[in-house]
Amino acid sequence: MALALLCTSCGHVLTDRSSYRGEQGVEVNRALVRSAVKPLGGTAGFALSAGVYTAGSGTLKGPFLWRIEAEGDDGYHKGLTVHRVKVETKITQRKEWYPQNLLGKTVEFHPLKGSPGEVFAQYQIPGELEVFPDEDGDITIIADLTVRTVEERVRKMVRFRMAPQQSRDFEFIFLPAEIVQGKKSNPKAWNW
Description:
mainly beta; 11 strands
């Protein structure tokens, strides 16, 4: 009976991901800035539920949630603003500026739990990034952004090159813990 209670609302999920992997990032005003994506589209494989335990599989691919993220020093780095963003694709040769009127908001840096002295900011671009690794190949994201510290604001045009990546993730999920932890405990969590 105790084992059944421990396994209530838990399970495993096997996911094949077709996504993008970025470079190490660039330094802007002493903060490490990167581009990141998270696949939204895909297909479900199978799901199995035995009352107290669930298993499933699926394939994830584009379109993507996308963001510009920055890591900095607590007490020094204060804000991140994205002014303009352009996406270029290698195979399909698309070159598109994102509507500038949807950008320009400033996001604050937040402390990272378990990493004293470090802060993190994420600027999630509104909407979806419509690229597909198999069809578009490598992508380049060009961002005009500002990193604000206690001393100054530095505005810079940066370029992030991202290559298609295939991966397989095996994840254990304990639903009550996911609910309790929530977004506030992890500033790196994606906004849905």
